[in-house]
Design brief:
The complex is a heterodimer.
Chain A: E1 5-7, E2 10-13, E3 19-24, E4 31-38, E5 42-50, E6 53-57, E7 64-68, E8 74-78, E9 87-94, E10 103-104, E11 108-112
Parallel strand pairs in A: 2-11
Antiparallel strand pairs in A: 1-3, 3-8, 4-5, 4-9, 5-6, 7-8, 9-10, 9-11
Chain B: E1 3-7, E2 10-14, E3 19-26, E4 30-38, E5 45-50, E6 56-59, E7 62-66, E8 70-75, E9 84-92, E10 98-100, E11 104-109
The chains are: A mainly beta, B mainly beta.
Chain lengths: 113, 110
């Protein structure tokens, strides 16, 4: 079974631009969560989607948004990029509403110049 | 506010030298405590979920235990391939958000 895939793997943007990251969960998984990982703050929860509905949201500004499609694929968008948005963005999928066992993708490394 | 603190930040051991990693947590009602392993350049890999104090789980050279305030990840006779960052996370019943600690970087010397 293929794992969680994320595209692109690396991205370089400049301040003020916007970016869209994509995540394809493991086949059959309906829950997708997004995390931001930085050396200073570690892994921080962004949001979680289940069956196209946002079930939970972390403490990030409104510039961070996401959505989930009917095939469970998910995208997250960051508008008006800031230097501090440089991070590894990780997507994780779970087979059900319960996020007891999450399977992470390799992440998208975003660099904002 | 839910919180997770992991110690030590980094740990260097000789191959075969057993040790334990600590995860202290504060959460208003624990739904689950999770351990992950993360290798450089990769996403975290799920290891264990613990639900209640007294619970223990094992996998190869790793054993995770849970009390009402902390969890330990015991590593017995580690090998160089056990070198990685080990992450602890908790999920509370209040809002279901998963809170991660900053991890322990483990380096096993051959």
């Amino acid at each position: 079974k293929a794992g969680v895939t994320q595209t692109p793997r690396y991205l370089i943007k400049t301040r003020g631009q916007q970016v869209t990251l994509s995540c394809s969960p493991i086949s059959g998984h309906r829950s997708v969560s997004w995390y931001q990982q930085t050396p200073g703050q570690g892994l921080q929860f962004l949001f979680e989607y289940f069956s196209e509905t946002q079930r939970n949201k972390g403490n990030f500004p409104g510039r961070f948004s996401g959505r989930q499609f009917s095939n469970s694929r998910s995208e997250m968008n960051v508008s008006t990029l800031e230097l501090g948005d440089s991070a590894l963005y990780l997507c994780a999928s779970a087979p059900s509403e319960s996020t007891d066992t999450q399977y992470f993708g390799p992440g998208t490394r975003l660099t904002v110049l | 506010e839910d919180q997770v603190t992991q110690s030590p930040e980094a740990l260097r051991l000789q191959e075969g030298e057993s040790s334990s990693l600590n995860c202290s947590y504060t959460v208003s009602g624990l739904r689950g405590l999770f351990w992950y392993r993360q290798d450089p350049g990769k996403g975290p890999e799920f290891l264990f979920t613990l639900y209640s104090a007294g619970e223990e789980k094992e996998k190869e050279r790793l054993k995770a235990t849970l009390t009402k305030k902390e969890s330990f990840l015991h590593i017995t006779a580690p090998k160089p391939e056990d070198s990685a960052t080990y992450l602890c996370a908790v999920q509370g019943v209040r809002d279901d958000k998963i809170i991660f600690g900053k991890g322990t970087r483990l380096h096993i010397l051959p």
